Amino acid sequence: MSPARDSIVALGAGRMGRGIAIVFAYAGHPVVLLDFKDREDGAFGQLAGEAQAEIRETLGLMHGLGLFDDPALIDRIAARIRVLPKSEAAPALAGAGFVFEGFPEIPELKRAALAEASALCGPQTILASTTSTILVDDLSPAVADPSRFLNAHWLNPAFIVPLVELSPGRATAPETTARLTALLEGIGKVPVTCAARPGYIVPRLQTVAMNEAARLAEEGVASVEDIEKAVKYGFGFRFSVLGLLEFIDWGGGDILHHASNYLVEAMEDDRYAAPGVIGRNMAEGRIGLKTGAGFLDYADMDIPAYRKHRLGAFVERLRELDLGRPPVV
């Protein structure tokens, strides 16, 4: 017999709530997709039917993509998800282990929903907002117990992308973050924790990269097609294996320092300037692999073996792209 799993409530029956419901049902959890709006019975019935149809359609897509083999599992997984109206919110929220709020990115709407829902949650329930833009401390005053509240930013499509960014607030208890981290790891996700700052981690990184790509196209530096090739076969290829900070260490922080200075001067634009930490690391001798330390510590690492492992991962990516060719003989 499989162990009992926490009951999950997706607060809001829109696209985000449906996606989260699928992720947890797929992992064996009982899920309530809670329509937290006052509706006439007929309107709720229509919404529930649409939600159930979309859930089955997404599960069918997952089957078609090869995530599972037996098509009979579509019905079995979908059956773990109950779509309930707001009139049945009290018992659903009281018995939930975790609640994920997925209302539109309007602070007033989110605060109202969080205030009402948190008053109905049980004493151990963890409540998380899935907001992609609003700081946790701008929402937590609306919550009955802010110690059990934090942000949990999912990346779409949630049923494929492993990363979830957690952002605890000033009042969030460490146990809350630890429990949500354990839950997410238990369903195969990769949670990371970041401070309550605008943009989390991935949105800040991708905003800079996307804007720069748009500028390259706008300035006529390259065609759209060639910019896309450069991203897929260079930028994306490289960072599918190495983290950004790891790559700074791989080449050396001094290279980034000098390259940044050149671009600032050549482009006459301070947006290319390196942050202060790059200069401080250089002054302290933390340049990267060549000095045994940078952003990461390599002191006790077998560096040749580490390099070989990373290069092997690059070769595997080449093969996945059907670009790993034998030598000409």
Structure description:
It is a single chain. With 329 residues, this protein is of the alpha/beta class. It folds into two domains: 186 residues, NAD(P)-binding Rossmann-like Domain (Rossmann fold); 119 residues, N-(1-d-carboxylethyl)-l-norvaline Dehydrogenase, domain 2 (Orthogonal Bundle). An eight-stranded mixed β-sheet has the order 3-2-1-4-5-6-7-8, with helices on both faces. Strand 1, helix 1 and strand 2 form a beta-alpha-beta unit. Helix 1 crosses helix 2, helix 10 packs across helix 11 and helix 11 packs across helix 12.
Number of strands: 8
Question: How large, in whole angstroms, is the Cα Rg?
Answer: 24 Å
Beta-sheet strand percentage?
5-15%
Question: What's the number of domains?
Answer: 2
DSSP summary: helix tally: 13
Output the strand order for the largest sheet. 3-2-1-4-5-6-7-8
Q: Show unreliable segments.
A: none
For this structure, the quaternary state is: single chain
Structural class: alpha/beta
Main β-sheet, in a few words? 8 strands, mixed
Short description:
With 329 residues, the protein is of the alpha/beta class. The protein has helices at 15-26, 41-64, 73-78, 89-94, 107-118, 136-139, 174-186, 202-218, 224-239, 244-251, 253-267, 276-283, 303-320, and strands spanning 8-11, 31-34, 81-84, 98-101, 126-129, 149-154, 163-168, 190-193. Helix content is 48%, strand content 11%.
List the helices and strands and how they pair.
Elements: E1 8-11, H1 15-26, E2 31-34, H2 41-64, H3 73-78, E3 81-84, H4 89-94, E4 98-101, H5 107-118, E5 126-129, H6 136-139, E6 149-154, E7 163-168, H7 174-186, E8 190-193, H8 202-218, H9 224-239, H10 244-251, H11 253-267, H12 276-283, H13 303-320
